[in-house]
Design brief:
The complex is a heterodimer of chains A (261) and B (69).
Chain A: H1 2-12, H2 30-48, H3 67-91, H4 94-127, H5 134-138, H6 141-161, H7 166-195, H8 219-250, H9 252-260
Helix pairs in contact in A: 2-8, 3-4, 3-7, 3-8, 4-6, 4-8, 6-7
Chain B: H1 2-13, H2 30-34, H3 37-68
The chains are: A mainly alpha (261), B mainly alpha (69).
Chain lengths: 261, 69
């Protein structure tokens, strides 16, 4: 990664406007096309290929290619945001703050989409077919954990919005982002795993991993699921880089001054 | 190139190991599949996906033009 960044920085010296962008990969279109092709494959394969015939889940098991991919994409985008927050604190370069906040923004968007799609899925599986009461759905640790994680990231944007001083905003929100990421995995994975969950694969089943019961997925599903995760994540990264490029253009003056100062 | 090939093989190798299917068969949307209406669903989703990608791609190009200025 470091080698790649250095190489890109050396190349980007030729372009005044590109200087702030550390990776020229952003300008390559192959991974954008790859994202498109993988998502076309996700939809075609996801709807047409065979899935295991299971009670309660029935055809909704295909939501795995969409709902679960949102959460995977969210985790990856938050991870990238976390890395850029650390990079900001290491060098105090303002552009790293822009990267961190925009990756966190698209990560949150994915999280919200994951939540909304989950609500629809709950309706036809846990509530209708499993006969769970609203109370037991509301007590579902994974829903609470995901809500906590998303609210923590929501607070990140509130925090960012409450500063007028750019440097102060960048520093404090970078530190906050690191703590937010530290809470992410405990709240969405570790706690639901400890206390049990309505999600398939919760403790008690063979898999013991709420959200993904490896026994429910067969090889055909994996063949669609893994490319789907990559496709959705690449789309998220693409949208995040678009936002970043707009922000870099909008704050060009600040970035240039920052560099000379 | 070799790595990409290996990656692709990795995606599809799991297909070789078939798991055994359940005896009792839960109800699936087989009617939709047999009368071919599932293809309409796929076509609708693909149209939305293509529309979204065209839109995002045009934004990408617009930003690229602004960056060159």
């Amino acid at each position: 990664m470091a080698v790649l960044l250095n190489k890109c920085e050396a190349v980007s010296h030729n372009f005044a406007t590109l200087k702030q962008i550390p990776f020229l990969l952003v300008y390559k279109s192959w991974w954008k096309i790859l994202s498109f092709l993988l998502l076309v494959y996700t939809i075609v394969g996801g709807f047409l290929l065979d899935v295991p015939k299971l009670f309660i889940l029935n055809e909704t098991i295909r939501n795995l290619y969409f709902h679960v991919c949102m959460w995977f994409g969210m985790m990856i985008l938050f991870m990238v945001s976390f890395v850029y927050s650390i990079k900001y604190l290491l060098g105090f370069q303002y552009r790293h703050d822009i990267f961190a906040s925009n990756f966190a923004a698209i990560g949150s968007l994915f999280g919200i989409l994951g939540y909304l799609t989950g609500v629809l899925w709950v309706n036809v599986t846990w509530v209708t077919d499993q006969g769970q009461s609203l109370g037991s759905v509301l007590k579902e640790p994974k829903l609470i954990g995901a809500a906590i994680a998303l609210l923590i990231y929501g607070a990140y944007f509130v925090l960012r919005g409450s500063f007028t001083d750019i440097d102060k905003r960048a520093r404090i929100s970078a530190v906050y982002n690191i703590f937010a990421f530290a809470m992410l995995f405990p709240s969405i994975w570790i706690i639901p795993r400890l206390v049990g969950s309505l999600h398939p694969g919760a403790p008690g089943s063979d898999s013991g991993n709420p959200a993904l019961d490896k026994n429910d997925m067969d090889s055909t599903m994996r063949m669609v699921f893994y490319p789907a995760v990559i496709g959705w994540t690449l789309l998220g990264v693409w949208i995040a880089t678009l936002k970043i490029r707009v922000a870099l253009l909008a704050e060009k003056n600040i970035l240039d001054n920052h560099k000379s100062a | 190139m070799n790595r990409i090939l290996l990656l692709l093989i990795g995606f599809f190798i799991s297909n070789i190991t078939w798991a055994q299917q359940n005896k009792e068969v839960p109800e699936m949307a087989d009617i939709m599949r047999s009368n071919g209406k599932i293809y309409t669903v796929v076509a609708v989703c693909l149209t939305i996906l293509i529309g979204l990608f065209v839109y995002v791609f045009s934004i990408d190009k617009k930003i690229q033009r602004l960056e060159k200025k």
